[in-house]
Design goal:
Pfam families: Amdase (PF17645). This is Decarboxylase. By secondary structure, this protein is of the alpha/beta class. It contains 11 helices and 10 strands. The strands form 2 sheets. Strands 8-7-5-6-10-9 form a 6-stranded mixed β-sheet. Strands 2-1-3-4 form a 4-stranded parallel β-sheet, sandwiched between helices. Helix 3 runs parallel beside helix 5. It is globular, with a radius of gyration of 19 Å.
């Protein structure tokens, strides 16, 4: 059969992605990408360190970035993004800018990071007060809040899991529970941190329930990378991607959790984190250690559902 009439594959734009060695959500990144764009992923070298501030520093060293960018440049991407939230906020605003400069110099290609994309996305939706959800330990979550503060963003409430490994196994239900606990007071948006935390399917459902834009690490990374090359991220009714969605339920204000007042694992008021040293309402979801290899995937829900939390989103 003569197939010469097909003329070969359609031309593709290329997005280079530098991810940490333990990144497990390649498929999630692709879900935001239109058909005429290809992702080219590479990973940082393995280091025997659990998720922590030390790991964030190790996977963001400029020598590591230089080698990864040079490898990606063999396939001529139009932009390169560093897809790791903690690795790009651990050095603060100055550290994030230095990472972008180092990558751009190594490959002579426009470069960005997840944390830089987050600030860009918050400006896009005009959000200055946000709730934060992370799978991290308290110290890593504190570092994220410090970075946001440098960027002029106030954290109104937060919840975190305290995990140091196997973050990609966290089920959507735990993400939803944390989101409900973190959204207290007056927030313009919710941010779900960590590129290794699954979020794609839960974003539209959370936006409908919480009535505010919901951003995630992988979402803002792909949105910013695609925008840098004149393309648009795709996704079902997400406020960041679709201005129409910002005028819908996600744009409504004045929402309070069912029954009024913030939700907590036990139904009582949220207490400040850090032994009273921080004013930010905080809920720590300290569950059992992540499961070793060979055991069933997933993390047991670390808390009982809040009182009258409303229906869970269908995911």
């Amino acid at each position: 059969m003569d197939v010469s009439f097909l003329g070969g594959p359609q031309p593709q734009l290329g997005v280079g992605v530098v991810a940490p060695f333990d990144f497990a959500l390649d498929r999630e990144l692709w879900r935001w990408v239109p058909d005429d764009v290809s992702l080219h992923l590479t990973r940082t070298p393995f280091v025997p360190v659990e998720v922590s501030l030390d790991l964030a520093r190790l996977v963001s060293e400029h020598e590591t970035l230089d080698a990864a960018v040079q490898a990606l440049c063999a396939v001529s991407p139009q932009v390169i993004c560093y897809a790791c939230t903690s690795g790009s906020f651990v050095g603060g605003l100055a550290g994030e800018r230095a990472m972008c400069a180092a990558m751009a110099q190594a490959g002579d290609v426009p470069s960005l990071t997840t944390s830089g994309a987050l600030l860009e996305a918050l400006r896009e939706i005009d959000a200055r007060r946000i709730a934060v959800v992370t799978p991290y330990t308290k110290s890593v979550t504190d570092s994220l809040e410090d970075y946001l503060g440098e960027g002029g963003i106030t954290v109104t409430g937060r919840a975190y899991l305290g995990l140091t490994r196997h973050i990609w196994k966290v089920p959507y239900r735990d993400v939803v529970d944390m989101a409900r606990a973190a959204v207290v007071g007056s927030a313009d948006a919710l941010f779900i941190s960590c590129t290794n935390l699954p979020t794609y399917d839960v974003i539209p459902q959370l936006e409908a329930e919480l009535r505010m834009p919901v951003l995630s690490a992988n979402q803002v990374t792909m949105w910013a990378a695609l925008r840098a090359i004149g393309a648009r991220a795709v996704g079902p009714y997400q406020a960041l991607l679709d201005p129409v969605a910002r005028r819908g339920p996600a744009a409504m204000t004045g929402w309070e959790p069912p029954g009024g007042g913030p939700l907590t694992p036990g139904g009582g008021p949220l207490s400040p984190g850090g032994g009273g040293s921080r004013a930010t309402p905080e809920a720590a979801f300290a569950g059992p250690p992540a499961l070793p290899d060979g055991e069933p995937d997933g993390v047991e829900p670390p808390l009982a559902p809040p009182e009258d939390p409303g229906p869970l989103p269908s995911v």
